[in-house]
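for the writeup, i need someone to sanity check this before i put it in the appendix. the sequnce is what the collaborator sent (i think, or maybe the updated version? ugh). structure was predicted straight from it, no edits. if anything looks off just tell me and ill rerun, i have time this weekend
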Amino acid sequence: MSYEDLWKAIIRPPRENYRILDLGDCEFQMGCKNCKRTDFTLTSVQGFRIVASHYEPIDSERISPILPCVIYLHGNSSCRLEALNSIYLLTGNITLVSIDFPGCGLSEGDYISLGWYEQYDLANLVDYLKEERRVGSIGIWGRSMGAATAILYASSNPKGIEALVLDSPYAKLKGVAMNLARAKAKYVPKFLLRIIFALIRSSIMKIANFDIKKLKPIKHVKKINIPAIIAYSTNDELVPCKQFEKIQVEYGGESHISIFRGEHNDMRPSEFCREVGRFFCRHLKVLDLKAAPILIPPHLVNEDVEERARTREELIIGQEHEQERSMTVSKAAADYYSIIPSKK
């Protein structure tokens, strides 16, 4: 394991490459609703072209001109395909937006910053949605890097968001970086790890222009007074459970802990998806619109599928293979929506 591999594991993890066709059909049916996907682009705070998608009912089936929206923020080494597992929210009259952060998927850029710059891209996205996409109340569902981004944004924009789902947020990036160094540089004494971290920090400051030691979402959660679900898996190998618990203790608003089996990159269980659906319906005022019950698609309900995914994860070692597993699950979701064409 080279030194370059260590800093790249933080700001240049394997990029998920996919085709636009992998997002599924532009028109599709979700439950009894005919829906559509609109792709659009924005410019990041660093000047990169970033791509995004908005899933919503077709115009003739909107129950209101303005609908609630959930913004899904993917984790590191992932992309907007990850959001396809959340598209069931459409059955509750909640629209869904997904984005490829700079350095991820089909967006431009070479590096990620795990929330440092992404928080400003999220701010631009929220402004765009409110001005251009007929969006009312907004919730954010972030995973890992996406959860940290949501925390940083919400702490500075308390009136812009109605609800948060924070799946596997880290408290301090330094702790995550040290865990990665330990995993990739096994049998290295602790005092040498501190030296390695200092070198990694210096390299990232030069290459990506941010300080990983200053990236501490835990310092921002006290400022947030937005209802939140803080979720994590019991066998998370990247972010220790203590970090999640610290975030919950320090959180400034109403919060609920959701715990489930699995590892950091595992597919989330169907019951958690139901919980998230109910949570967003309640806090985004969807019930005021007489929304239909949230419908969980078969690939999330089938416990045999989930068990196979967990079993496969146990047989896979290495970040590149975790990326492959995530792509397989997301493409399965895309296939499901693609084979249910929109009624003409």
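Strands lie at 27-30, 33-43, 49-57, 67-73, 95-99, 135-143, 163-167, 228-233, 255-260. Residues 222 and 252 are 4 Å apart (CA to CA).
thx in advance!!
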